[in-house]
Amino acid sequence: MLSIGEFSKICGVSQKTLRYYDEIGLIKPNEINPKNNYRYYSINQLEKMLFIMKLKSYSFSLDEIKELIDLERYDQEEALIKLLTKKRDTMEETMKKIQYNIMQLEKDISNLQNGVSIIPNLNDSDIQLVETQTLNIISIRKILTEDDYKNGYMPYFSKLYEKIAKENLTLIGEPMAIYHSPDYDPLHNDTEFALAVEEYATGTRDFPGSLCAKSTLNGNYSGLTEIYAKLMKWIEENGYKIIAPPYEVYLSDPYTTDPDKNITEVYFPIKKNT
Fold first, then answer.
1. Residue 41 in 3-state DSSP?
2. Cβ of 201: how many Cβ atoms within 10 Å?
3. pLDDT for res 252
4. Which of 188, 206, 230, 272 is most buried per CB count within 10 Å?
5. What's the pLDDT score for residue 24?
6. Per-residue pLDDT reduced to its tens digit, 239-262
7. CA-to-CA distance for 93 and 152, rounded, in angstroms?
8. How many Cα neighbours within 13 Å face the side chain of 37?
9. Weakly modelled stretches of the chain, pLDDT under 50
10. Would the CA dihedral through 47, 48, 52, 58 be positive or negative?
11. How many CB atoms within 10 Å of residue 209?
12. What angle do CA 52, 150, 229 make, to 5 degrees?
């Protein structure tokens, strides 16, 4: 048996942390002396503590760790494989974003050294007024969180492609995302994913055409904020108002294209203020 101090020293975890782990049922002392309330841990509990520390090093929450520990051993191994795989994928995605941000920082540093501002230029040189045509679309509408956006849109478009193939519909346009929420809420964003098809069928609807202010992003999706700001500024300064949700049309596949070569069209349906 090991005293709480000895167990703490071996594991490199404070006694305060061990008491907290006891409170939440993560790992309890093997024995508590009823006379003095001294806590003792068995040698066999070292393996459990090392398991907890390993998962913590991968940034798993204590709730996630406790849920795993409470499983039977067979179920625990299967669940652990899934959790570790998901955590690895998340870390890889985070690493890509960090690498991209480092690249952008290097560009900004270089621009500043050459006297070039790093604040986006909101000039309207690439904004067009276009009349769009009514489309017959098949769509999926979801309430998404900020994390859902980070995970990408491909699962939603994949379901639409499957439905088109199953019902022998004819695809006639590029993927679209329509943003119905009036403002941005990290936990509640009303988003519709759509594909234009030729045939009218169950589940299709008209997506009305209109006069639109349009701009095109050539590059990483992180640049969309600049495009939206530019369009909003142009709409206000030129006496128009927005009459329907903005939407994006994806001319390139982000899963096969270099992110810096993505092509995204952004449309704001508008009309003149009277």
1. strand
2. 14
3. 87
4. 230
5. 92
6. 999 999 999 999 988 666 677 788
7. 11
8. 1
9. none
10. positive
11. 13
12. 140
Residue entry with tokens 């904020």: 225
Both tokens of 107, joined, read 């560009």
Polymer length in residues for the chain: 274
| Gyration radius from the chain CA atoms | 27
Instruction: State the Cα–Cα distance between residues 85 and 76, nearest whole angstrom.
Output: 14
| Residues paired with 41 in a beta bridge | 2
Structure confidence at residue 255 (pLDDT): 67
Q: What is the pLDDT of residue 126?
A: 84
Identify the three-state secondary structure at position 12: coil
Structure-token pair, residue 137 = 């679309």
Rounded to 5 degrees, φ, ψ at 139 are: -145, 165
Q: What is the pLDDT of residue 171?
A: 95
d(CA 63, CA 223): 36
The Cα 167–Cα 161 span in angstroms is 10
pLDDT value, residue 187:
83
Encoding tokens for residue 20?
């907290």
State if pTM tops 0.70: no
Q: Report the interhelical angle of 62-69 vs 73-113 (nearest 10°).
A: 160
